[in-house]
Amino acid sequence: MHCGWFLVLAPALLAAPALLGQRWTIQYFYDQARDELTITDLAFPSAQRGIAVGWTQQRDKKPKPVSLVTSDGGEHWSLSPLEDMPRSIFFLNESAGWMVTEDGIWSTEEAGRSWRKIADQKKPKKKLGPTPPGGLILRVWFLDARHGFAAGYQKTVLQTSDGGRTWTALPEAAKPTGNPAFTAYTQIAFDGPHGLIVGASVPPRRDLGPFPSWMDPERASRAREVPTITLVLQTLDRGGHWAAENAPLFGLVSAVKMAGADALDVFSYGPSFEWPSEVYRVDLRNGKSFSVFREHDRRVTSVALFPGPRAFLAAVEPTGRLNTVPIPGKVKMLTSSDLTNWKDMDVDYRAVATNLMLAGPDPEHLWAATDTGMILRLTQ
Questions:
Q1: pTM over cut 0.70
Q2: Could you give the C-alpha distances from 129 to 125, 132, 151, 153, 203, in angstroms and in order?
Q3: Given CB 3.0 to 4.6 Å as the disulfide criterion, which of 55, 70, 292, 317 pairs with 330?
Q4: What is the rounded CA–CA span in Å between residue 256 and residue 300?
Q5: How many angstroms separate the CA atoms of 179 and 169, rounded?
Q6: Which residue has the higher pLDDT, 209 or 15?
Q7: Residue 100 is part of which domain span?
Q8: Confidence band, pLDDT 50/70/90 cuts, at residue 223
Q9: Is 180 helix (H, G, I), strand (E, B) or coil?
């Protein structure tokens, strides 16, 4: 069970009323005979402007980083090459945005039609332990054109006051428990002056063996889920002051959204856990949290949260005994207006994914991208 103010993470599943006639339709699909498109992040800062980033790849060939841009609400998309492999994007408005790549941080003032590198990624210290190739930073969030934050591997949290050209370390990020070699801050969320930066410390486990769970399902199915150290940094004054907290919890926080007095977070669990994921609501006024959604056949990967309240869940139906098998499953979308009764929404039967991302400026203009090269739109 999750409790305590630090789980300000545990989001308030502000549910979205299920409007009659709403359905998710495929608006873009990268359908090439030899290439596949993997989308890693999606942003829709307005009803008309949308940006997706990822890479295309042919079998046994090097992936090619690309972006997809639309200026007409997704009716038409333009595919363009990028100079570096993207990890995530953040947009402040229709024009101004930032992109984190393996080798740097880039900015755009043209809604993603062109990018300019403004900072090189700091390379991980090899002596600390195994980290993926590239730099430390995983994602950024900007409060205005100059003031922003970055989070990533090895307990890294940075702040900038010049639009991302220079960065300084946030001292509070090092305070929570956890060996930096196995610790990362992976999520950032703000709503007004209130902000959260969330991560986890996950030491290696000998009982899981040297291979991914899907390569050794028998071993993975016998592995017992154990708590990990969840890390939370919280600010109430736009990052002027931060409070650090940590606690042992089951699962990893894979998504965080905030709206008003509530937050919504998704915990993803291990391959053999009873549920593949669980969604929590937290009252940011008192820190109380409670579970609002968990199903055996729904692995939630993204949430959208709006005042009202309105909430949407993007999920995948697991395809095997293990929750983490990397085989695309059917896309499932859910909505609720009371945080108790969740309704499955109509989704194009062709939509499959292992991971989804939700993005949109309001509940009436919402999109979802899949890591299988599809972009879906919520339509009437």
A1: yes
A2: 8, 10, 18, 11, 10
A3: 317
A4: 12
A5: 17
A6: 209
A7: 5-379
A8: low
A9: helix
